[in-house]
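Re: that backbone. Tokens:
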């Protein structure tokens, strides 16, 4: 049986622990909520539990549809056993509609539907405020090879198609999302980290009500209630 050992990394929303198996880690979901590169912070009781449950449902769905991930099993309300991978220092962003920073930077109309998904990359570096970069920057900085980057984009767009279909069945619009990828010891590129309302923007199909972390960013209230709504809808669709 794989057992948890010492803490090796703590991020804004999760902790990563070593295990008795060097090829596996345990990922613990915290209740911490942050926004604007950590400038806004709070503790939201049960948020970690909800994100763990939501991410588990989504990962199982993606795996069933051919996506390779680091997820092995969910151990309890807050912990997942995952394959140990080397994370690419890239935030991979896929956008289906204009909102947030895209509207601020490019003057697009809020909620504008794109003819095709927008694929973006950010350099995952807190000290630099995670700047947007392009494929040439990625290769110049040796963050990934050209071949790896092509595979990352291919997988990200496949995940987008699968998630749009899933959330549509739950009467939710997948506006955009942010994911990470890791490299296994075998050289495979796999989806890593989490997919939850912390990392996706989800709007109700009818009312366009926001049911994601924007409720925390924008002081809209009812953050936990919105996450619970997402979980309930996914459970009904995937049951």
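Recovered sequence:
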């Amino acid at each position: 049986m794989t057992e948890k050992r010492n803490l090796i990394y703590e991020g804004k929303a999760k902790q990563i622990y070593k295990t008795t198996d060097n090829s596996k880690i345990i990922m613990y979901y915290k209740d911490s909520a942050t926004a604007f590169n950590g400038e806004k912070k709070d503790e939201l009781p049960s948020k970690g539990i909800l994100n763990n449950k939501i991410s588990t449902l989504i990962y199982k769905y993606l795996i069933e549809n051919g996506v390779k991930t680091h997820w092995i099993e969910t151990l309890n309300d807050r912990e997942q056993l995952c394959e140990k991978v080397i994370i690419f220092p890239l935030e991979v962003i896929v956008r289906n509609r204009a909102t947030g920073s895209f509207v601020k930077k490019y003057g697009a109309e809020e909620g504008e539907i794109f003819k095709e998904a927008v694929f973006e990359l950010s350099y995952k570096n807190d000290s630099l405020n995670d700047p947007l970069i392009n494929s040439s920057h990625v290769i110049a900085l040796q963050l990934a090879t050209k071949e790896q980057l092509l595979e990352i984009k291919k997988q990200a767009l496949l995940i987008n198609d699968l998630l749009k279909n899933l959330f549509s069945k739950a009467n939710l619009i997948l506006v955009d999302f942010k994911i990470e990828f890791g490299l296994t010891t075998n050289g495979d590129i796999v989806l890593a980290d989490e997919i939850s309302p912390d990392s996706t923007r989800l709007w109700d199909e009818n009312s366009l009500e926001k049911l994601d972390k924007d409720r925390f960013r924008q002081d809209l209230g009812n953050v936990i209630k919105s996450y619970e709504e997402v979980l309930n809808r996914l459970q009904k669709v995937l049951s």
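The first strand starts at residue 4 and ends at 10. Residues 31 and 44 are 5 Å apart (CA to CA).
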